[in-house]
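Handout for the seminar on molecular recognition.
Each group receives one record of this type.
Step one: identify the two inputs.
Step two: read the structure output and locate the region that could contact zinc ion.
Step three: write two sentences on what you found, then compare them with the reference statements printed after the record.
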Amino acid sequence: MEFDLLFCDVTVLTVDEARPILRHAYLGVTGRKITWLDTNPPQGRARRTLTAPDYVLLPGFFNTHTHLGMSVLRGYADDYELDTWLKKYIWPAEAKLTEAAVTAANALSLAEAIASGTISFTDMYFFEPQLAQLCLSAGCMANLSNGAMSFDQHYDKAADRAWGEMEVLARDYHNADGGRIKADAAIHAEYTSHPEVWEAVSAFAREKGLNVHVHLSETRAEQEACVARYGMTPAALLDKYGVFSTRTTAAHCVHVTPEDMELLAARQVTAVHDPGSNLKLASGIQQTAKLLEKGVNVSLATDSACAINTNELFFELKLAAILHKGTQLDPTLIPAQTALRLATRNGAFAQGREQESGMLRVGMDADFIALDFDKPHLLPCHDVVSNVVYAARPTDVCMTLCKGKVLYENGQWLTLDIERIKHDVKHVALPCITG
Ligand SMILES: [Zn+2]
């Protein structure tokens, strides 16, 4: 057997129930695929061999609700009430963002995320075809969309920039590079659109075979206003207009009712958990344990760096594992293994990638990261999953691979020009906001 890369004597956290943890293992990569995973060494040759007894290999993270272009607003307006935050600070600043500014911010977010173990994104923002191009060259996976919005009585697709970007994404980028990039159809949210938008977007998703991305029941005010306006919750309402007829990613789902949870489970809608963003913006706390108990697929995300000031998932992973224990006075809720599943396999399912990604097994794509456990804060290692969830830090990521390609290794970005990115953020993006 021929390998491009062979890891020897490593610990592998597979997130596969059949054999969850392999110690002193061998993992071989050929092309885009994992071609060997066992505690016995393979026969054959490898172009590169890495013997690393302190390395822990696990699936790369899926950040399933992002606005990567917003990292230019990291720390721009913190600690305000939501309405003031949006109307006084965020929306006026966003109105000044140029294509070059958003592209610089996107590259910055990718650099931060890839170095901290994230390999796939479900993004909703503007200038998304440009982000598709960037993700193609950066080597990561992405499901990309611009969320349809309309405050007029009728939906004028030609007047909605999001619709135009969705068409370009679906035509030029859907399933690019063997499915590494996918176009999603998106509705920004129930409260920023109306039935004509929901029908148009869901018909487009069915016609093109796209997943749907939407913000759902993020705040109590949003939930209550929808019930007052339509006599239905946002989940029931969008379902009535066919929005959940293709695989859907619903961000937040903080204020969904028990009936909504059953509906999300029945329609296989993913409820994205953004614990950091929901806490900082005081939106509330998703009932994650209840959603999982009802059979809903829950995945993990940061939301934007302008909400939670970061694009890395270790913080959210730990938060997801400790938040529900503390608020419901039950230390058995969301065990470390479950939290890890939210960030990996459940994210792959949300993006429609569960056949090839999200766990480590022979035949799956080589989409994984390596953590260097030779660190004071990772010793001793009684339980490798506990150490990953409760003790590991983004800087413990020593390698990030996607589709067999090394994107990041020991402080070096191999597909991104980090000095150029930092320069563009300081000298191109920032002047848009402050200039
Ligand atoms: Zn969002």
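Reference statements: DSSP finds 17 helices and 19 strands in the chain. The radius of gyration is 21 Å.
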